[in-house]
Amino acid sequence: MMTFCPLQEAIHKMWTKQLCRNVVLCHLKRWTRTHRHVRPWSPLSTVRAASSAHGAGILGSLQVTHGDHVHIRDVGHVEQVLRNMVAGGREKLQVISDFDHTLSRSTYDGVRCPMTHDLVKDSRFISESDQKKMCKIWQYYYPKEISTTLPLQEKIPLMVEFWNKIHDIFIASDLTRQAVRTIVQESDTRFRDACDVFVNVLRKNDIPLLVFSAGVGDVIHEMFEKHGLTIPNCHVVSNFLTFNDAGKVVGFRDPLIHICNKNRSVLPDHTYSLKQQERTNVILLGDSLNDLQMADGVPNMDRILTIGFLSRHVERLQDFTEAFDIVLVQDETMHVANAILGKIVGSDG
Ligand SMILES: [Mg+2]
Description:
Its main location: cytoplasm. By secondary structure, the protein is of the alpha/beta class. Helix content is 45%, strand content 15%.
C-alpha cells in the first residue's frame, strides 16, 4: 500500500476530488446535450434541488429569503401557503395584479416612471394650462391618497373628487382614440424586468390574470400591445374612455375605479368570478396598501399570497410588511414572483 506524507496526502485528495468533479461535470454536460428536449440544465436548478434536499423550505429552494430587499413578516405562514399552492398546481391558481408601478416599472435609472394617467396628462395632446391645473389637483389629493391615517369614509369621497376632476379635463381636451395610441407609442413606458417571463408562464399554463387598475384602461391595453404581452387569459378592469363616432373622447365608462374601490364590487359582471371559482389559490401583486382589497370577494378563496412592491416612500416599510406577505424593496424586477410561479406550475412550466 502506498503511503503519503501529510502534504502528499492533501494534494492527492484535492486531485482526486477535482478529477471526480470533472468526470461528473463531463457526464452531466453530455447528458444535457443528449436530453435537451427533456429539461434544460441550469446551475440554478441544481442549487434549488440541493437547497430543498437540505430542508431549507420552499422559499430557501427559490433563493427567496428574508433580508436585503426581501421582507417577510411570517416565514412560517408564507411557507405554509406556498406548500398548499404548490400542491394545488396551475389548475387552482389565479393571479390578480395592480398595473401602475406593479406590472409597470416604478423607477428607471433613479427617475420615477409615469403612470397611465401621467402619460395622458403630460402628453402633447393636453394644453399647458390644463397640465398646470392637473398638477395642482395632484398636489392637493396625492398626499390624501397615500395617507394611512385618513379614515376610509373620508378618503373615498376625496378620491372620487380627485379622479373626476382629472377625467373632466381629459374629456374637455381634444383627446382622441388615435391620440391615446400615439401617446403610448411615443412614450418610454417600461414593464418590470422579466415581466414578459411572468406573462408568458401565465399564458402557457392558462392561468388567468386579472389586472385591476385605477389608471386608464385604454393606455394599459396599448402598453400590453406595444410590448407584445397581450394574452387571452388577461382581463383588465380599469377606467376606460368612451369615444364618439369621430373617435374623440367624450367620457369614461362606469363605474369609476379609484384606489378605494378596487374589488369585486366594480367588476362589470359576475362572469369572470364564476369562470374562476375553481381557482381557489390567489397570488396578488400590488404597490399600494389599497391593492390588498383586490381579492375581496373572490369566490371560494382558499389561499392567498400577497406580494407588495415598495419602490419609493421606503419609510412605509413597516406598514407594508405588516400588510403584505412578501415585500420587495426597490426591486424593479419580477424575479421573485417568477420563482414562486415557476414552483407552482412545476418544472415544465
Ligand atoms: Mg399601483
